[in-house]
């Protein structure tokens, strides 16, 4: 059986459409909230900082070990040079060849000590740089975490406002649709689902306000002559066409 509805009910369908359009707009507004992408960007940034921080901390502890090793290398060379020097000072070595060998070793050790001290200094510098990198990254981590918390709060506040408004509209929609025939609502909802959220449109100045295509004169005549409770459909988009005093029929 064809769906029928009184002119008032058809007019109410346009009000329902108005509410549904608002709901759709709110849904898009929610999905398009700038804070969503801002929060995502900050989460990615924070993840990157945390990874770099782990790497920087690992580098710092590796360099610390290297530094201790370099210190111990220097100490060993210094200790050996001292031992040699003590032997020399004590006159423990008298044979010319042995003496020469010992002096040569002392000279070699002094050179080696200088080289190792250079290495130690370089590692100390690297260690300080790595420590600074950890400090900088920790500061970045704190700053980004705070910013993320602010953006998340702003996003949730925006969501709460939108959800509050949506819930109020959903309530109005429930009240309005409860006064309309079930088969009319079912038809309207089905068309709405298939046609970008618009199930019912006003005829205005000879065109469908759903697809904005001009309705030909013959079809206008047909609609004009329909029984008041008959449901008109757009020839082009199949949406429910609502005729009111504004339609100019
Ligand atoms: Zn249409």
TrEMBL record:
Q: Does the keyword Cytoplasm apply?
A: no
Q: Which UniProt keywords apply?
A: Coiled coil
Q: Which InterPro entries match?
A: CT398_CC_hairpin, Oxidative_Scav/Glycosyltrans, Zf-RING_7
Which residue spans adopt a coiled-coil conformation according to this UniProt entry? 92-129
Q: Which residues form the C4-type zinc ribbon domain?
A: 207-241
Ranges for domain CT398-like coiled coil hairpin: 16-195
Pfam families associated with the record:
CT398_CC, Zn_ribbon_9
Q: Does the keyword Nucleus apply?
A: no
* Name assigned to this protein: Unannotated protein
Q: Which organism is it from?
A: freshwater metagenome
